[in-house]
Amino acid sequence: MKKWMCMNCGWIYEQEVGDPEGGIAPGTAWEDIPDDWKCPDCGSLKSEFDMVEI
Amino acid sequence: MTVMPRLEDLEDKSFDPFLVEKLSTGDCPDPYPRIHELRAQGPVVDGSYRKQFTDVPDVQMGHLPQVMVLGYDAVMKVLTQPDIFRNKEAFENNLGRSFGNTITVMDAPIHTRFRKIFQKAFLPQVVAQWGESVVDPVVNRLMSTFIDRGEADLIEEFTHHYPFQVIYAQVELEPSQAPIFHKLAIAQILSSIGAPQGPEASAKLGTFFGGLLVEKRQNPGTDLISHLATVEVDGERLPDDVLISFLRQLMNAGGDTTYRGTSVLLTGLLTHPEQLAAVAADRNLIPQAIDEALRWEGPVTSTFRYAAQDTEIEGMPIRKGTYINTVLASANRDPRKFENPDEFDIFRSRSTRHIAFASGPHLCIGQHLARVEMTRALNAILDRLPNLRLDPDKPAPAIKGHLLRVPEHLWVKFDR
């Protein structure tokens, strides 16, 4: 399975969960997340995420 | 074939560094009533966290200007503003002296560069493969020593050993060298208080790890040291001094915290038998049980940052040059974020993340490995120790310590 993962901390974005505390509603597709959104765990930018095989 | 370097013991073989561990953890039975009182005073309170609980002088930090930052939002502001609240000055005279040029003692931009390389060796998909190959054999070996008895002290006989033995397995340490390794890992902490055994231990561990890196680069495997010795990001490898410093820190940052976290997890479940039964019946509950244990009794209650400029937290001024006791435990038991925060409840809402692993750029780099280890350990215990329960003839487990929390004993019975 492929997921978007923060390369600075390993946090994984789950589309069905989203990031409500960060203003991302559950179900939000990765492409629709704004570029200035930050990793909720370590604060890295969206650009620091890579698609990885889990 | 890998030819392992040998570790040298301290010159003074009678020196006992483990005494310092007792001094640093203390025996405070419950710091949380005091933490709640402090948080009620406001987000910023003058003084040191440690001084709330012990009269033992703090030779490293006691003379420095200090405040405590308390409550979830205030603590998050400290952890997620690394330009203002820095690590270098906070840790260079304690962890920096013990371990060397470790990433804990760095700030951006150099921290950002090296952190990304280290993290690559600790990403979830990397550490997952160590569960079966490294963690399970250690767990099974330790459990085999008591499984036929129908009773055990899960701290003395299990949790106090397994994370360290996982590290020994990762560095392929000869079993006869393990006691020296553990002793040197503890002794190096004494650098920060000026004991000559501290730098001696740091140097001897450095020589050992330096030799190990040479060997692993010649004969790399799938183990942690091979990953770290060869991992690259954008063509850049880790410098040896940074890598050796990281490995020096591994026993404390990776071994000690996992021992404490697992002990607290088992204590929480065994003192709440209905929750233990639920997890035993549905292993999908294990991740939330781990998170609740870490929120409820996080292994590290407070960490430091340094104010690099005049600033404020929720309107409370903090002067440049102040050392910030960032009280993680006050955040994880903040009633504004967690209902009935002093209760252990694996079914509580998870809408607010706990910060036992901290937050921001210095978030625990080994959290995914810790989760793998705790999951493997708990699964093995639930699989192999049927009808697990507290031993009614022994004292109930008591989690102690104002800074680093753990119970000394966890006496259990189970069916054979």
Quick recap:
Chain A: Involved in the hydrocarbon hydroxylating system, which transfers electrons from NADH to rubredoxin reductase and then through rubredoxin to alkane 1 monooxygenase. Chain A has one domain (2-53): Single Sheet (Rubrerythrin, domain 2).
How would you sum up this structure, described in words?
The complex is a heterodimer of chains A (54) and B (416). With 54 residues, chain A is mainly β. Helices cover 0% and strands 22% of the residues of chain A. Chain A contains no helices and three strands. In chain A, β1 and β2 (12-13) form a beta hairpin. The mean pLDDT of chain A is 94. With 416 residues, chain B is an alpha+beta fold. Chain B has a single domain, classed as Cytochrome p450. Chain B has 17 helices and twelve strands. In chain B, α7 runs parallel beside α17 (367-384), α11 (197-218) packs across α12 (224-230) and α13 (240-270) crosses α15 (286-296). The model of chain B has no long low-confidence stretch (mean pLDDT 93). At the A-B interface, loops of A face α6 of B. Chain A: Its cofactor is Fe(3+). Chain A: Keywords: Electron transport, Iron, Metal-binding, Transport. Chain A: GO terms for molecular function: electron transfer activity; iron ion binding.
Question: Strands, helices and their partners?
Answer:
The complex is a heterodimer of chains A (54) and B (416).
Chain A: E1 2-6, E2 12-13, E3 49-53
Antiparallel strand pairs in A: 1-2, 1-3
Chain B: H1 18-25, H2 32-41, E1 44-46, E2 66-69, H3 72-79, E3 85-86, H4 88-91, H5 95-99, H6 110-120, H7 124-143, E4 151-153, H8 155-159, H9 162-170, H10 178-187, H11 197-218, H12 224-230, H13 240-270, H14 273-281, H15 286-296, E5 303-307, E6 311-313, E7 316-318, E8 323-326, H16 328-332, H17 367-384, E9 389-390, E10 399-400, E11 406-407, E12 411-413
Helix pairs in contact in B: 7-9, 7-17, 9-13, 10-11, 11-12, 11-13, 13-15, 13-17
